[in-house]
Amino acid sequence: MATLQEVRQLAESSGVRRVDLRATDLLGRWQHVTVPLSQFTAQLIERGVGGDVGAFEGSGTRGIELAFIPDLDTAVVDPATGIPTLSVICRLVERATGDRFARDPRHVAEKAEAHLRASGVADSAHFGTRLQFFVFDDVRYQQASHSAFYFVDAEEGAWNTGRDETPNLGAKVAAGQGYLQAPPFDAQADLRWALCEALTAIGAVVESERREAASAGQAEIAVREQPLVRKADEIQWYKYLARNVARAHGKVATFMPKPIYGEPGSGMRTHQSLWRAQTPTFFDSNGYAGLSQTARYYIGGLLRHAPALLAFCSPTTSSFRRLTPEESPVHLTYSVRSPSAVVRVPEAQPSPPRTRVEFRPPDGSANPYLALSAMLMAGLDGVESRIEPGDPLDKNVHDLTAAELGRVQRLPASLEASLDALAADHAFLRKGDVFSQELIDRWIEVKRDEAREVAARPTPHEYELYFSV
After folding, report:
1. Angle CA(394)–CA(398)–CA(403) in degrees, nearest 5?
2. For residue range 122-151, what is the model confidence (pLDDT) as tens digits?
3. Which domains, from first to last, does the chain contain?
């Protein structure tokens, strides 16, 4: 546990002049309040800094005053600011009662970790992420009652082969062919490395970075496993730093899952494992792909609750433009080899500590505290209820007969369907009061509103299809 004295010493040795206090709203966006370093005192740590609940979009409440209570263990010097800044992630507390704010997403993640320990199944859950995003040179969009458009551009986009760039040097990437391309076709290698250095500065362990498949500047950085709350904090840093590093390079980063038609979307492949007494519980040299029975049950929980999990893990209408049989894993099975399986088992399990399972549908539009907590609760329910995952699917679905394919269930095909699944299947989330009924109901309400708003608006392609009918 860090002390105020230790944190102030860090700040003073780094020339810090201000402290940025951050908390996450229901939809996963960071909100912040900034104070001078001189005001970062024991009294502030105890009482917090005030903010109205209305700033936390989707909260459904107005007029409640919240307090940002700093978690000193999260204090780091922000690598993305021009003015030396100490950034601290906060808990949200209702000032009138002193109680934790019921819809504070980070509180949900803390309760999920506590519930895991109380279950006796394991002491901690470790999560690793491969989070993808796009980097564009220009983005414009607008929605009105009589018009709507979006426009994005990237210098390496395939559509720019004929653009007059005085001169155009021809380093463009064909649609869907960007995976692992080297410079000059990979024009953003330096940007990604700057992001890796920024992540390292806040304590993340970067395993690798690479260009992803889409023509227009798609990137992926793999970051080492961390316990649940720390990993969710890290994902918030990842998104913040990606946006700010891109901006410093004169570009813009987005975690929208499917911003370009005809190009691969961006996901957040999530590796996970359970540990007890600092010993991994997922390894068995005699099991399928080196998996223990505990790991199999965990997979069973992920698969059984996957339709409901999507409401938190892939929570936008854009998510489901990516989650299609042609592009992404949508089949409710697990496999070492099949790219279409919802749960993948990394083929190389070199040692017990590296043995894990990968849940593949999530994307960067998710609130990480809610998404990781929901995955843990589903896997834990699988272990406690001894849910067998059935046989693995070690074939490409394109090689299956029609009869074989018909027996493989799929994920819901829309946000509305995933919300229906969550409404019908959330008892596993309610265990230990990890997810309150109030939060689940509010989430469904907010997301149904989003889906209705998208469905109500005509698209340009509808004009192409139907204007002259």
Report:
1. 85
2. 999 999 999 999 999 999 999 999 999 999
3. 4-103 (3.10.20.70), 124-466 (3.30.590.10)
